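Table S5 (text form). Sequence records supplied for joint modeling of the two-component complex.
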Amino acid sequence: MFLIRSMEHTKVKMRTHAANSLTLLNISFGIIAIILVVRGYTHTSQLFIFLAAFSDRFDGMLARKLNTESDFGKQLDSLCDLVSFGIAPAILIYQTAFHNIPDIGLVFITVYILCGAIRLARFNVKEFDGAFYGIPITAAGIILTFFSFFVPILSVLFFGMITAILSILMVSNIRIPKM
Amino acid sequence: MFLIRSMEHTKVKMRTHAANSLTLLNISFGIIAIILVVRGYTHTSQLFIFLAAFSDRFDGMLARKLNTESDFGKQLDSLCDLVSFGIAPAILIYQTAFHNIPDIGLVFITVYILCGAIRLARFNVKEFDGAFYGIPITAAGIILTFFSFFVPILSVLFFGMITAILSILMVSNIRIPKM
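The corresponding structure-token record, covering 358 residues in total, follows.
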């Protein structure tokens, strides 16, 4: 009896850890992406942000599938998202698109990360009613990373505008049904 | 009557914004610290991490004093702390102490940030009983930044050890009464 209960407990623990491990994989990819930008490997950094997005897509799905959604998992997810889709794409854009305007560029990326943090904090305290309010930071980060491929052919003005628009959209009240 | 109520509402809103503005100042200092390391201004970066710690010390105090503590404020605070005392000191140590061992250094700082995120997520879901469990990420970040001043005279082994110890202490169950 004790053995069965103990095995059941271990199974539940392993299932919970499975989803949280994917979340930790997401932030690890985000940290690697940041360091790769710092070391000048822009393209590899872009790849790691996409890998982070890939793990982020599956951690929530896995938690729901295994029925192990938890408050801790939700909190961890938001913290990791800020790193992988807030800090990492911001530094990527800063080092690629804004390197000729370092001070104005700093203002743009600071506002972007600030809006991302506000969006995540708001999301964590709101009851989820099947829709997002404001675009998720994951989407904003992926869009910014996608556009970083076009730095050689697009103007710095364009990157200023897209960073500002994504910042505003994150803290806006636009209702986006969850897919 | 309407005017008085409206003014009262505006006052409450302004008070809430005062504490949250200090939290946003904390993350802004953290972002500036990160960019300064990336640009090679290590010493100025150290200063900005201490400025972030200074704002962090006062946002909670201000919220309690003005009686405007909120779930949103708590969430925002954790997100900002991960940037200013997780990412910023980690990149600072990476660029100063670990620049000769970039790959092993990446493992050390990734574990440090992961442990910081776990510590914050755990803190957010636990009822506060007057004490912290595990050292706060703010303390870990300040200690790491403090030791970064000694990079020229201390060995890389020391920095590996201090980063690992701080990581373990953050996710430990050591009970630290709040001062």
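Note: Chain A has one domain: 2-177.
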